[in-house]
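Bumping my old thread because nobody answered last time. Still need a sequence for this structure:
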């Protein structure tokens, strides 16, 4: 009989622990992390025909977050997660039946639409003749556990609710809000060049059971013609939440003193009528505001603003409901030279 030496047993134990540790870092945990990113200035990433040089202090900043898989150690040991990170289940990031790559493509498409809508809102504010005709409500995603998942598809364009035309996301929300959770709603949808009549049952909002939802993520379908060239390039950043920041910086590039010498971070999805919609990842974005030592954080009013106040540190949090309100709030800031 061979008896293992203590040294060999210790070495084998250490090797086993190393293998377990490596597997823990490499094997997916079934969860994702939302991780803060530092807020960054938009000026180098926004090009507007006829723009003016701005050498003053301050600037308009955008802030995004990193979405990545959590490792098993990060899932089990919270202190290993980056500061300000939030862990979420996989289905909250990647709906069943899709992939992370597909979700990234969807986010890139949302970003392109957000850039176009923001440019239209800003140029219209600057007095340019912008042609922007809303065509309906674009379905960007459908909750897999909602009845709508059996009826609606991404890229559908909703043009009527119960026979009454809707052209914007705000109009769709107002029409659905008149119903009760569990009611059946008739939708007129454009899909693949054809007009379809569909019905979908509403579901209760998890945050407010009395409020009906269809269970879809929407954007603005519109035909937009800009009178001057506007080019916005954030690289691999996706999603619609930088819309408010885009619109503010386009005005800044055209010579409007939007920031008044302050470091202004803005977040919020902007719609063609200038309204600002809530977004996700506010906690992480507030951490990004702190990392950039920003002076002001413009954020959608309501729950987004309340969360921002908890994490934005010394930055002044300003809740806004629309683009005009954002401009008026910034106009009241003391001028910095």
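Sorry it took so long. Here it is:
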């Amino acid at each position: 009989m061979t008896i293992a030496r203590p040294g060999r047993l210790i070495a084998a134990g250490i090797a086993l622990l190393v293998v377990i540790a490596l597997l823990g870092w490499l094997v997916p945990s079934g969860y994702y992390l939302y991780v803060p990113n530092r807020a960054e200035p938009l000026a180098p990433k926004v090009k507007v025909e006829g723009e003016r040089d701005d050498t003053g202090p301050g600037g308009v900043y955008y802030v995004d977050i990193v979405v990545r898989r959590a490792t098993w150690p990060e899932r089990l040991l919270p202190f290993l997660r980056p500061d300000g990170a939030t862990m979420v289940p996989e289905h909250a990031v990647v709906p069943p039946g899709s992939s992370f790559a597909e979700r990234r493509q969807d986010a890139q498409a949302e970003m392109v639409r957000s850039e176009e809508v923001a440019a239209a809102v800003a140029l219209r504010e600057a007095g340019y003749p912008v042609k922007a005709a809303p065509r309906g409500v674009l379905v960007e995603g459908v909750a897999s556990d909602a009845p709508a998942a059996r009826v609606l598809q991404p890229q559908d364009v909703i043009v009527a609710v119960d026979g009454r035309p809707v052209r914007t996301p705000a109009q769709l929300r107002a029409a659905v809000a008149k119903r009760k959770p569990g009611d059946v709603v008739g939708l007129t949808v454009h899909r693949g060049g054809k007009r379809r009549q569909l019905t979908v049952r509403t579901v209760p909002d998890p945050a407010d059971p009395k409020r009906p939802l269809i269970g879809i993520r929407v954007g603005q379908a519109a035909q937009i013609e800009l009178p001057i060239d506007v080019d916005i390039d954030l690289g691999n950043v996706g999603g619609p939440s930088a819309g408010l920041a885009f619109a503010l910086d386009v005005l800044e590039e055209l010579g409007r003193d939007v920031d008044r010498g302050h470091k202004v971070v803005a977040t919020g999805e902007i719609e063609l009528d200038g309204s600002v919609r809530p977004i996700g990842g506010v906690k992480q974005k507030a951490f990004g505001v702190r990392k950039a030592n920003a002076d002001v954080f413009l954020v959608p009013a309501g729950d987004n603003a309340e969360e921002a106040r908890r994490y934005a540190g010394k930055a002044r949090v300003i809740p806004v409901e629309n683009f005009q309100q954002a401009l008026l709030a910034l106009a009241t800031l003391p001028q910095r030279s």
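The chain has a mean pLDDT of 87. Let me know if any region looks off to you.
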